[in-house]
Write a structure and sequence with these properties.
The complex is a heterodimer of chains A (306) and B (235). Chain A has 306 residues and is mostly helical. Chain A has a domain of 210 residues. Chain A has 13 helices and four strands. Chain B has two domains: 164 residues, Rossmann fold; 62 residues, no CATH class. Classes of the chains: A mainly alpha (306), B alpha/beta (235).
């Protein structure tokens, strides 16, 4: 068996593409969950909403693809804002020290965000039905492109480009700009942030808006890439993004991206060498192994919690 | 001397429990005012209420002639009232430099050179994580961070807590030095002896009330103070 048989290279490319779609989702997810340090399980539904916003616009007006992505971004911003007000803000009412330091207070948003995500998913099913909706042919981003021995599609390059832009943009934001420093400050010490004059409420809302815009953009791009949009589409990528984030060390966005690629490649290899039924086992297996052997993640700077 | 900060009949409650029962206090421009009292009498609550972290149930807080009671904390900071809070509350996962950048806020790093001249040890540790500093260095970072905004009034909540005697002396020297730079100071301390030595005025808190107030040198000689806070006779 020759490992450099084009067939295996092709599988590797498929794995990379899959990993890139996870990475696209993981970036916004890690910004809110890992960097801002707010437990948020509704990111998958933001992704779905982005995809549906694009689909509705495509069906209604058949605009250029840039307008479709723009619609997804707008819905993402709005959804992120609403999500924060609805599921997170109520748990920040108390400013006494005990509440600020209370894990229970912080982690209660696990359930409130999960509740919002269930409501959104069910609402989408009522409005659009639970079956897959296919994207009109002319909007698909899957024109084949031959690169040496393997065949990729245009979407692979678009997703790679968008993910790279998001990654570099966010790294710049978080380390070089005042707003990025404020996000990290609020995450590190919310009380301390008040004493340096940071508007903590506004910082949290902005992080949700930016992270959710990225989530919604990921949703529409992956929707156009696979050509299928349905209310539960955010669930599996959400879990994969979570695994990638934990593996990457929670607060590291580059770490999450690298781990998303590792996940995608491993799943594709599992499908190739074992069977397709094993691909999900790979993700969860990685999660368990990381938690046991690298409790700070593969790229985590030692911090108090995982 | 004009009044910079005036707190009048301030009541603060946590849930059903009232902690401050009508505190009144003024800080004249250019002065160092010390608030003394033992643990749990409400000193930190008073400081947090002035900085807008806690809400006032009743009473007024006036800074530079304008009411700041119940303004959001970041607006009070923008008005020039900064605090070096209890427990330091620095950003331990971020570098010393990033802490100072955040301290500067929209003023940026304009004050950096002046602040580093005052705290040379921080200049040597700019790239280090703030959490890796010693206790005394963290306290200095906490004060330096507040000075980055060129405050008019600096609130200092227990700056000497948990520090070695040598460092405590250093911190009190800094308090004097900060005043000479034109910053008024409201200082909360359990270390009454040291606080009365630097302060112009002092107030003693007991159980959410101010029970005694006056010029610091008078309080230093007050037998009640000597007995309760200075461990018997002074001098």
């Amino acid at each position: 068996m020759d490992l450099f048989d084009p067939y295996y290279l092709q599988q590797l490319a498929i794995g990379l593409s899959l990993g890139m779609t996870y990475a696209l989702m993981a970036i916004g997810f890690t910004l809110i969950f890992g960097v801002l340090n707010v437990v948020n399980f509704a990111h998958g539904e933001i992704y779905t909403l982005g995809a549906f916003a694009g689909l509705v616009l495509i069906t209604a007006a058949a605009p250029p693809i840039a307008a479709v992505v723009f619609a997804a971004l707008a819905i993402g911003a709005f959804a992120g804002f609403s999500l924060e007000r609805l599921a997170f803000k109520p748990f920040r009412r108390f400013t006494d020290e005990a509440s600020l330091k209370s894990r229970a207070m912080r982690e209660s948003t696990l359930l409130s965000s999960l509740a919002v995500s269930i409501v959104v998913r069910e609402a989408l099913e009522i409005v659009f039905g639970s079956q897959m909706r296919s994207v009109p042919f002319e909007y698909l981003i899957n024109t084949p492109v031959r690169v040496g021995p393997v065949i990729l599609v245009t979407g692979d390059f678009i997703i790679l480009g968008v993910a790279a832009a998001m990654l570099i943009g966010l790294q710049y934001l978080l380390t070089r700009t005042r707003i990025g420093l404020s996000i990290r400050a609020v995450s590190n010490n919310p009380l301390g942030a008040k004493y340096v004059g940071i508007d903590t409420d506004r910082t949290i809302i902005m992080t949700f808006v930016v992270g959710s815009m990225m989530g919604a953009a990921a949703g529409i791009l992956v929707g156009l890439y696979y050509g299928a949009i349905f209310p539960a589409m955010g669930f599996v990528p959400g879990i994969k993004a979570f695994v990638a984030m934990v593996m990457g060390g929670l607060s590291s966005i580059p770490g999450a991206v690298i781990c998303a690629l590792i996940l995608g490649i491993s799943e594709s290899m599992a499908t190739t060498f074992v069977s397709s039924g094993w691909s999900d086992m790979v993700a969860y297996g990685f999660l368990i192994l990381t938690l046991i052997f690298f409790p700070n993640g593969l790229f985590g700077a030692g911090r108090e919690r995982v | 001397m004009t009044t910079l900060l005036s707190v009048d009949d301030l009541h603060v409650a946590m849930g059903p429990q009232e902690i401050l029962h009508g505190v009144s206090l003024t800080v004249p421009e250019g002065a160092i005012v010390a608030v003394l009292g033992s643990n749990g009498v409400g000193k930190t609550t008073l400081m947090r209420a002035i900085s807008g972290v806690y809400r006032a149930r009743r009473g007024s807080i006036t800074f530079k002639g304008e009411s700041i009671a119940n303004l959001p904390a970041h607006r009070i900071v923008q008005a020039g009232l900064l605090q070096a809070p209890e427990g330091r509350q620095i950003f331990s996962n971020m570098s010393v430099r990033e802490n100072l950048v955040l301290g500067g806020g929209e003023h940026g790093l304009g004050e950096l050179d002046r602040v580093l001249a005052m705290f040379p040890v921080l200049g040597e540790r700019l790239k280090q994580n703030a959490g890796s500093l010693s206790g005394g260095e963290q306290q200095m970072l906490c004060i330096a961070r507040a000075l980055m905004r060129k405050p008019t009034l600096l609130l200092m909540d227990e700056p000497s807590l948990g520090l070695a005697p040598k460092i405590v002396a250093l911190i009190f020297d800094l308090v004097r030095r900060i005043r000479t730079e034109g910053v008024s100071i409201l200082l909360v301390e359990q270390n009454a002896r040291a606080a009365l030595r630097v302060a112009d005025h002092a107030a003693v808190m007991e159980d959410g009330r101010i029970v005694l107030a006056g010029p610091a040198d008078q309080l230093r000689d007050d037998p009640r103070i000597a007995e309760a806070y200075l461990g018997g006779h002074v001098h």
